Amino acid sequence: MEDVNLVFCTNCITFAGIMESKLLKLDPPYHIIYAGGKTGRHVATLMMWEEPEPGSTMLPYTASYPVIAQGNQMPQGSLVGDSILEDCRVVCREDNMRITLYKFAELVKFDFEQLNPVEAGHLWDQLVGLGVEMDFPKSKESGEEKTEFEVCLYFFGTQRHLKVDSNLSTGFCFHAEGSAEEVYQQLHYQHQIYEAMFCSRNLVITFETNDGFEMEQEIVDRLNQLHED
């Protein structure tokens, strides 16, 4: 863990008590973090707390918010005020600016769970702008980077409202909800985005499912036609 330095502290009076804050400046090498749809170097943490007045029945309020440097000509030192530190995720560290496909898939899954997800393509663009590189798994036979991946999809729900998630073990997170056609369109879009993200590697993603119903298999077959047409 990095050493921290106290930069400033402030306080203000609220109806419940005194709100105080401290900005803790972190030292490099910084962590690259995901915070509320944004990624950046975690350069500082804003700590806030409120001590209730004597006799008050209110519980003490405490929260910590990340301050990040986003790169890409963005202002350095942006407070992410809508994401407490506990809701952030570490991507990598400045002294090892690499991420595995599997860890990126976990990050995309976490992003999908947010109120306003930015989705895989935009998320990867942000990371590339910070200098992060992708580590692709290597073939056991040849020792070369894999370029072909088969993703297993899991279907839940009914024909009127389906939910689809992928097995993250191959390194790709797919998620969709809606009617059968809406699910197909969402998955098709995500499929194209992933392959466009890594087009220089001639990435090929195909799909399978163990949910052997006609509707689910039809969606999988349509997705795989991207490489058959």
Question: What can you tell me about this protein's structure?
Answer:
The protein has 229 residues and is α+β, with helices and mostly antiparallel strands. 23% of the residues lie in helices and 39% in strands. The protein has helices at 101-112, 119-130, 180-197, 214-224; strands at 4-13, 17-26, 31-35, 38-52, 61-69, 76-79, 89-93, 98-100, 133-135, 148-157, 162-166, 175-178, 204-209. The strands form three sheets. Strands 1, 2, 3, 4, 5, 6 and 7 form a seven-stranded antiparallel beta sheet that branches. Helix 2 packs parallel to helix 3 and helix 3 runs parallel beside helix 4.
Quick structural summary:
This protein has 229 residues and is of the alpha+beta class. The chain is built from 4 helices and 13 strands.
Order of helices and strands: EEEEEEEEHHEEEEHEH
Shape: globular
Assess the beta-strand content as a share of residues. Answer: 35-45%
- Alpha plus pi helix count: 4
Mean pLDDT, all residues: 87
pLDDT below 50 for ≥5 consecutive residues: which ranges? Answer: 1-16
Helix content: 10-25%
Instruction: For the record, give the distance between the C-alpha atoms at the N and C termini, rounded to a whole number.
Output: 51 Å
Largest sheet composition: 7 strands, antiparallel
Find the structural class using helix and strand composition: alpha+beta
Count of DSSP strands: 13
